[in-house]
Write a structure and sequence with these properties.
The protein is an alpha/beta fold. It contains nine helices and ten strands. Helix 4 packs parallel to helix 5 (about 170-190).
Amino acid sequence: MWFKRSQPGIKPQIKKSVSDGIWIKCDQCNEIVYCKQLEEYAWICTQCNFHFRIDSHKYIQLFLDENSFQEMDAHLKSIDLLKFKDKKSYSDRLKEAKRKTGLTDAIRTGRATISGIPVVFCVMDFSFIGGSMGSVVGEKIARAVDVAGNQKLPLIIVSASGGARMMESILSLMQMAKTASRLAWFSENGGLFISILTNPTMAGVMASYAMLGDIHLAEPGALIGFAGPRVIKQTIGEELPEGFQRAKFQLDHGFVDAVVSRIDMREILIKILTFF
């Protein structure tokens, strides 16, 4: 005969999986966090202030006036010009990225308003092949800069990237020169460029448009650099300062102007835009 409790006992804790979309584990403090709570707090861990990586859609919702984003050049798509193949073909990677994200490439650009102030807004999406910069990313940024310059609008770029897209080889690397030259023209004509650096902003993106802003704002904990820490350590054969590529270290050494929590970023942008 099985014994049964006459009164209900302690209910066992059931650990929800991340895949069910209800709970998620924080990568920094390992706390299990309720997704609805995260969403209300701009996807920032309420226990340790860790900023979860979010997609371009969420940045648009957080920073811009509601329904103000008018996308530009959404029709531009990358092609496998070099017929590149590693574990799978570049063409297949593009198809998979488009299917998973619903995007045509790793950046969205468009006109929008922030507290009624017109801007040109560009936001990268790390979920599309690591936010890598290929020909389409460079072209969309160049066109966005032209719109901002010709219409005398402030330019805001939110970067989230592992760097240049190796599957496009030299075509990808040339986007560094293209975007830098357009931003030089924009600056010479008095344009205001606010660069927002998120986790990560690395390699060719960091070495080009991401660090050419008039004002650089970084999210807390964002990894910002050219080569990764392990590569640098192996190259120079020396121990590196703890967190030397993180946003706080970059602030202390003059590479960024402010480290701003994502939940405060919209208000900071409003203050900057209003001032200028």
